[in-house]
Predict the structure of Farnesyl-diphosphate synthase.
Amino acid sequence: MNSTELKVYLGERREVVEKALLTFLPEDESLGNIYKAMRYSLFAGGKRLRPILCMAGAEAVGGAPEKVLFCGCAMEMIHTYSLIHDDLPGLDDDDYRRGVLTNHKVFGEGMALLAGDGLLTQAMVLLTDPKAHQGQDPVRVLQASQIMMTAAGLMGMVGGQAADLEGEKQKPDLEKVQFIHTKKTGALLTAAILTGAVLGGGNEDQINTLREYGSRIGLAFQIADDLLDLMGDAEAMGKSTGADAAKGKMTYPAVMGLTQARQTGESLVEEAAQLARNLGAKAEPLEALALYIMERTH
Amino acid sequence: MNSTELKVYLGERREVVEKALLTFLPEDESLGNIYKAMRYSLFAGGKRLRPILCMAGAEAVGGAPEKVLFCGCAMEMIHTYSLIHDDLPGLDDDDYRRGVLTNHKVFGEGMALLAGDGLLTQAMVLLTDPKAHQGQDPVRVLQASQIMMTAAGLMGMVGGQAADLEGEKQKPDLEKVQFIHTKKTGALLTAAILTGAVLGGGNEDQINTLREYGSRIGLAFQIADDLLDLMGDAEAMGKSTGADAAKGKMTYPAVMGLTQARQTGESLVEEAAQLARNLGAKAEPLEALALYIMERTH
């Protein structure tokens, strides 16, 4: 799969995900402002990378991607909740996200806080909904829930965000940067792939390979984002650039320099692509996706 | 079971819950401030009513209470997360809770926000942990997760908190008060009983009876709390009193008067006690608990 084919694949999958999200969180005036706030951020754009990775994870182990859509959509809700809370005045205090006003700028701080809580809980409602996972082995559904919530929680995203918050007062170093990003963004990306693979019927070997793959693309994504932020590619980022550096945030280029950061990113995606190749033709999208991560920064 | 016996029962159960919580969230310096913040609020006292109700729900259908402890503790984490977020400046902006500083007053706003997120996700990590629910039917574990997260989310607690937030600007009326409290506090109390009953092996009839029981004690608890707040019993409430009335919050006495609120509370606990009696001797604690709710206000 070359990068043109990958773009078609990503576009098609993204449409499938959009439709599914609209089914799982349909418009409903009766549910008031809290529901409006939840939908505002969920439908404010985004690449839908986590649901796409979830489906690709299922595919890579021979499962049916459409059967794990509910899980991918739950992942997207968790991702969106994390963005809403991250943007709040108590954390990053951002006014814009993906070119539009952040949730609390539109709905107020209290409602935005609750909209985040609502999306996080709704993700679990969806994941444990017997109508959503018809015919799936309940043991595997529980296993997927465990993977997802562990990645979202203290040992994953929440832990990473906390370290990031505390890191603002500290001098950046490689160990801290790696800790923060492995947890803050890497854990959920990896979990997206793994839950798809678990629900898709993957065996232990396949799941271990995908875990290795996930940890590498998780870091590579962060390095690429850091590089794009530095390169000032406002269009690709959909937000004001140079922002992370200005805040003295922990970034890869800040601790290892631009050249070394780029080389590390390239090595990680090469390793990830090789891991995907080991899984055979079904994992071609994952291989192409890995290679594409650093392409964006060329 | 008279009220003296009930107090012994509640005391004993509370100790069991404290021990279990310490097992599920043990001290661990390596996990940093975020974990400290999560534990600060989880171990800041509290009656542990939800875990006790969860165990009593299992008992009432002939199940073993200690086998649902993990679920009761997950409930307590969800309850604690909701208190942390509720106290934040964006919502109630409270400095004290149960006589001690609120989470954000000790750890800062960002960390408190994340500590709430951490407890909510940790509840699901615990609920879906195969080590925690050894030997339980995975279908029933999923069912319990569904009940818990629905009660915690948009259709339950989050929805109720949002309505409460918006209600601050509106004139209180009975319909709104009922909507808010059924969702904000009632849903989670009922879910505590129901998850216990589901995991305890309850049948549909038993679960329906407990749902009716739960909805009644949920409202009665809120009425009793409103009355205690008005009566200014600072000791029983563990926080400054008259606070709700001062904020123009939706309370039962405010919309129906003191006498009518008290009568409604008494009717609800009588009905709840009768429903518990219908379940037989195993539900005696639930009967006694219902009757005790309004006793506190005498």
